[in-house]
Design a protein that fits this description.
- By secondary structure, the protein is an alpha+beta fold.
- 49% of the residues lie in helices and 23% in strands.
- The radius of gyration is 28 Å and the shape is globular.
- The model has no long low-confidence stretch (mean pLDDT 79).
Length: 448
């Protein structure tokens, strides 16, 4: 039981920490200067999250881009595969930007293919164009110490940058790119992109830096130099940092482009527009108000009918909300109006488990069992019904989400958003409604 309470307490503390709003304090604590608390981002093992709730296109609006792929060099029999590959990479980029309901559609008009990309929650059209439209092909070039610029033989487009020669280190040698904060030799902190190489890439990078100490290694994106630091020593850690006046957003976007890979065909942006939220603020406010009224009604019902057990139920319901919001931020989940509906529905299902458990406990008391015996027997007998009901609901959520994209089922973004929040809600409600509730009740019976 002690272990259970440690797990529950850790989860509560982590969830509260990740959901704290940013509060400026600018004070010294225990000898350290603390500028603020809350508003944290998460960067663990390459997993980066800014811990903000992502809002869907219908709630927050966003940007719509129309892309025209250049398929002139693609054989007709391979056009379908090229378009699917392009669509997949665009969806990956939008997903890694923090949007789980990207709307990327392919249309054909006048024998020309176009892709329509809608990105929720972003207002900067130029940033959206950079994120989606650039190929982001990375290359590593080494400074040539014997190079002399000849004005009469300037490099042509696509040739290596003057003064630099190609190396055997390629973009395929990069395992992943992570937005990070880099500390320069002057002690200045700045946003950067941390490149983590594969095992083969680590060896290549180590050999390259060992043989070229004192020369500059240029990192290029789409043949444009980003940074060319001087190699001072062999680097065998398998990591490198790209710096150069990045903002946090620019570093994140570049990491997304590198991780998702280069676009298989060039694209031209032929249309752009900002989209207003299709759901008005009044509808959102009414939805939130309705959810709060429903939550209050359920809480009053549980307190009136079950007294102390009802108070425990309301407490676990609050924990359910806290854990759910934390998961929405960690995954992350893009909240649309349909997703909010799934969350509200799962609140009622979270209480269902408690009602089944409490009624079973009452039956055991009436049968002559007391204290922890009634609790254990009540939970054991209620578990079968709870398991079956929630298993059916999870299967329904799985079908609605349609992960394998079966053609005979719906593949709508809003339906999937509803399925995701419903599925997460059911899983969290099982944890709080059964595991947490059981430990709280056993604790009070033990203390008595």
């Amino acid at each position: 039981m002690k272990r259970d309470w440690i797990i529950i307490t850790l989860l509560i503390l982590i969830s509260i920490t990740l959901n704290l709003p940013k509060i400026e304090i600018n004070k010294s604590l225990f000898g350290y200067k603390v500028l603020y608390i809350g508003g944290y981002s998460l960067n663990v093992g390459g997993l980066y999250r800014d811990m903000e709730l992502k809002k869907g296109l219908d709630i927050s609006g966003g940007v719509r881009l129309i892309l025209e792929p250049d398929l002139s060099s693609i054989p007709s029999e391979e056009m379908g595969n090229s378009l699917e590959s392009l669509k997949g990479i665009l969806e990956t980029r939008v997903n890694r930007f923090g949007v789980n309901e990207p709307n990327v559609t392919t249309v054909k008009f006048n024998n020309k293919y176009k892709l329509i990309v809608e990105i929720p929650g972003i207002e900067d059209i130029e940033r959206a164009k950079t994120l989606v439209g650039k190929t982001a092909q990375m290359s590593f070039l080494m400074e040539d110490p014997n190079f002399v610029l000849d004005p009469e033989s300037l490099p042509k487009e696509g040739d290596p940058y003057p003064g630099f020669v190609e190396t055997d280190l390629k973009s395929t040698d990069i395992k992943k790119a992570v937005p990070a904060i880099f500390q320069s030799e002057a002690g200045v902190y700045e946003p950067s992109v941390n490149l983590i190489f594969t095992s083969e890439g680590t060896k290549k990078f180590s050999d390259l830096t060992a043989k070229n100490i004192g020369l500059r290694l240029g990192i290029f994106i789409d043949n444009v130099p980003v940074i060319a630091p001087t190699i001072n020593q062999q680097i065998s850690t398998g990591e490198a940092y790209i710096t150069g006046g990045f903002t946090s957003e620019a570093a994140k976007d570049l990491a997304i482009q590198i991780n998702s890979g280069a676009l298989p065909v060039p694209v031209n942006i032929v249309g752009e527009s900002q989209i207003g939220a299709s759901v008005g603020d009044d509808v959102i406010q009414k939805s939130i108000k309705g959810g709060l009224i429903g939550l209050a009604a359920v809480s009053i019902f549980m307190l009136f009918l079950y007294k102390k057990l009802g108070l425990i139920s309301v407490s676990t319901l609050l924990l359910y909300g806290l854990f759910s919001i934390t998961l929405y931020k960690l995954v992350p989940i893009t909240l649309t109006l349909s997703g909010v509906a799934g969350f509200i529905l799962s609140i009622g299902m979270a209480v269902d488990s408690n009602i089944l458990i409490f009624e079973r406990i009452k039956e055991e008391r009436n049968a002559g069992y007391e204290g922890s015996s009634a609790v254990e027997r009540g939970f054991d007998k209620a578990w079968g019904s709870i398991k079956d009901a929630n298993l059916v609901s999870l299967i329904i959520a799985f079908i609605l989400f349609n992960p394998f994209e079966w053609g005979f089922l719906l593949q709508s973004g809003p339906v999937r958003g509803f399925a995701v929040t419903l599925g997460i809600g059911i899983a969290v409600s099982l944890f709080t409604g059964v595991y947490v509730t059981k430990n709280i009740i056993k604790f009070f019976y033990k203390s008595r």
